[in-house]
Amino acid sequence: MKNNRKIGFKKLVIGFFVVLSITLFSAIFSSITINENSKINRHISNDIYPFMDKLGEFEQIVLNSKMLSTNWVYLQYNTEDKEELKKLINEDYPRIKQEILASYIAAGRIEERDTLKLIFNKMDNLLAEESELIKTLITFADYENAEKLFGGEEIIESRVIPQSAEIKNLLNHFILRTKKGNDNIREKMLYSFKKLEITSVFFGFGMFVIIFLSVVYLQRKITSPIIQVRNILLRLSNGEIITEKVKHTDDVISQMVDALHKLSDNFNKTATAAYKIGRGDFNIKVQPLSEHDILGSAILEMRNNLKAYSEEMEEKVRVRTLEISQQKEIIEERNKDITASINYAKRIQRASLPNIHTIQSELQNSFILFKPKDIVSGDFYWYSKLGDKIIIAAIDCTGHGVPGAFMSLIGMNILSSIVNESKITESNLILEEMHKRIQISLRQSETENNDGMDVALCVIDKNNNTLEFSGAHNPLIYICNDDLYAIKGDKKGIGGIYNYQEKFSKHTIKIESPMSFYIFSDGYQDQFGGEKDRKFMIKNMKQMFIDNSNLSMAEQKQIYEQTMQKWLKPTHQVDDILLIGFNLNTNN
């Protein structure tokens, strides 16, 4: 009997040892897996996400450098963008470059070292080009210098834009590879959780088999004797006298079965918790079995870390979304106020312009094509009739938009004072007087303000059948007997700090047959567009005038407007457009 007890107890000890070994192996395996995934999470949070943010900031710097350098060439008076470009070159780019080079190894992108160096080398070259551009176009005189301005445009078109596109393409590929590497890391982590889930199920199944065998064993060693005892007790209750004895058994087995059931339940709960945490359920209740429960403590720590990180990311997204929403509301409100003010300024400016019907009552066969770039315009047309003389002009002020509109109002007032009050009607003398009064009005000798105007001005004398023309930079084009003639404006503008010694020229044309005249600002000829995104050019305007010279001025206006709309399709308007055409003959 004693030997049987020893054999039974030995079997129970062996079974318990097997179960304990499986549990210990499972705990170690799970702890290693969870710790590895915790390290991956910390690597993503502390290294990869900041590195991706820096790459995104660098990509924005590339886009800003192209935009700001383009504005440097085409928007002379945009000082805010110019300062922003200098800051980008001298501060923002060196900083982000240093940060990226300092963090790419920690982010696990050491194999991309050569690609990063290539991108930064190209960016250094691009900023060198832009620095050269900054040194080329500094003063007003630089922008008036056609060679320098064309050189700046050439740098933008042939170097800055292509190089920016190349850098952005390389950077996008680099970012995509980095994101793909991050996705691989996440897939690795999810695979680890999946493997942990499968292992947990496997271990649970193994334990189930062991428990089942233990139950069979207990059935043979304990249950049968207990049944015998029950039967004996029933028989005793009936008053029977029992003589047979119950075989002795070891009740340690039943205690072990209870312990294994409890262990199996806890193990299944732990595996379920790990699986749900891996699926993103951070609110699941995790309670270690004791202070020595390594697996339970590791899972609890992982859940808390992931939950804290998730809440932190959600809070950052919420705060940033709120900030963006607030900034959007402020910008929209300010934009609404500014737009309303500019629209009101538009009504003032349009009311100040001469009435087209009044002009066409004197110049019956005429048109005015007027297309401001913005709501208000820096180009304007002017008209007056003094006795038998008609004065009509196309004026292009410095800049466009609101600054140009202010200059246009000054120009209108000065012209009205010169012609209508001072009675000056000679074209060259009008420009001379405009130049002086603009300098005085803007106190240019004191402030060194260099704003001014380009003017094409005609004085039509009906009595003598003549037309006088004087131009400040802008020309006069006329067609007589199907031949085109061009009179260039003087190579000086109205206003500015320059003290011209030469007087403005006066050109007199005798009207002896029907003749078509055209005066205009530089907006039409300088507009970019077409299939190759180039300027329209004055030569194309001349050909356009010749091709349509036999049509009425109303028909010509419609053709010229449609031509510009078609030319503009692939791009946007870059400057105000003003084109005036009128026909004269000896009967006018």
What does this structure look like?
The chain has 3 domains: 280 residues, no CATH class; 55 residues; 229 residues, Phosphatase 2c, domain 1 (4-Layer Sandwich), CATH 3.60.40.10. Helix 1 packs parallel to helix 3 and helix 5 runs antiparallel to helix 6. The chain has 13 helices and 13 strands. It has 588 residues and is α+β, with helices and mostly antiparallel strands. A hairpin with a 4-residue loop joins strand 11 and strand 12. Strands 2, 3, 4, 5, 8 and 9 form a 6-stranded antiparallel beta sheet that branches. The protein has a 5-stranded antiparallel beta sheet with strand order 1-13-10-6-7, with helices on both faces. The protein has a two-stranded antiparallel sheet with strand order 11-12.
Structural class estimated from helices and strands: alpha+beta
Looking at how many chains there are and whether they match, the oligomeric state comes to single chain
Which residues form runs of ≥5 with pLDDT under 50?
252-261
Strand content: 5-15%
What is the first-to-last residue Cα distance?
143 Å
Total strand count, please?
13
Mean pLDDT: 80
| Helix content class | 55-70%
Q: List the secondary-structure elements in sequence, H or E.
A: HHHHHHHHEEEHHHEEEEEEEEEHHE
Shape: rod-shaped
Q: How many strands, what sense, and barrel or not for the largest sheet?
A: 6 strands, antiparallel
Total domains, how many? Answer: 3
What is the number of helical segments per DSSP (H or I, 4+ residues)? 13
Q: Radius of gyration from the CA trace?
A: 44 Å
Features:
Phosphatase 2c, domain 1, 5-stranded antiparallel beta sheet, alpha+beta, 13% strand, rod-shaped, 3 domains, single chain, 588 residues, 6-stranded antiparallel beta sheet, 13 helices
